[in-house]
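Handout, section B. The chain below has 346 residues.
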Amino acid sequence: MPFDGDRAPTNMQITSAVIAYCFCSGGMLIINKLAVHHIPLPALLTVCQFASASVVVFGCKLLGILEMDNFEWARAKYFLIYVAFFTIGTYTNMKVLSLANVETVIVFRSCTPLAVSIFDYLCYQRAMPNLRSCVSLLLISAGAVGYIITDREFQVNGFAAYFWVSIWWVVLVFQLTYGKFLVGGLQHVSLWTPVLYTNTFSVIPALAIALLAGEVSDYRLAAVSLDSRAIGWLLLSCAIGIGISWAGFWCQSVVTATTYSVVGVMNKMLTVTVNVLIWDKHASAYGIGCLCFCLVGGSLYQQSPLREDAKPSESLDSEETALKPLSDDCEKFSDDDLPRLSTTKM
């Protein structure tokens, strides 16, 4: 059954999508940390995750298990933009996890809703957050600032300790905003289409990063011990990588970009709990308290509705529509006919 990005999702669909995404996201953060611990080659791990996802998903398409669109330029050019940032974001995320504690990633992640809410307004004609949601986002940011001040990496190395995580944060804001366009502005047979496109197109860029980082040099490879435990975490990270790729696009398709980013913050509580139990490099009690403060703020957030001037009118031909799905025959469209992120220039 074709995926319909225009039909309003039911509460059950929203709840199911959020739960699936939270489960995969929380698990991925911990499993990636363990995988990098046993195989300290983050870029090559990323290549394995992308390649395995592409092979498995496309293999299921050939076997008739999954339905998805074929590769076509009219669709691919939008995904190539996303993939460039998707690859950088995945690598920098794993780089951060190899240098800092998990809470550092979580706190920076908690600051993304503030930025994404602005792009929701500019790109998708959503209303700005109401008073309750503004308070929610400010509480999230306040908790993040409180954590950063007490974080030991920050105290020892200053802002230099946050170089990689800052790059990851900027890339993530773009991903959260543009990802909504990919599932809402382009018509797909199923959500497995963006999963196939993003993972397939990401293999070569990720491999290039591995080469530039020197991860394929003899001495780096010789230092890696591929015992059964390391291989196990690698395979598990590849498996959950497929899950989070699909669950992420599913969740993005049923909620706003800002809500999606808030959900990503809220699901980290499980990650924090597990991290405190298994890692000695976790935050102090005060730092955990600041993180909890962030999550309390996130629980107060309410999704912004469409602006009054953006609500559908009786005429479906209105030029004010922000996103229009592609026709089933994408190749018949010229570049001028393809969907736009918004009528407002950014």
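Note. DSSP finds 14 helices and no strands in the chain. Compare this with the example in section A.
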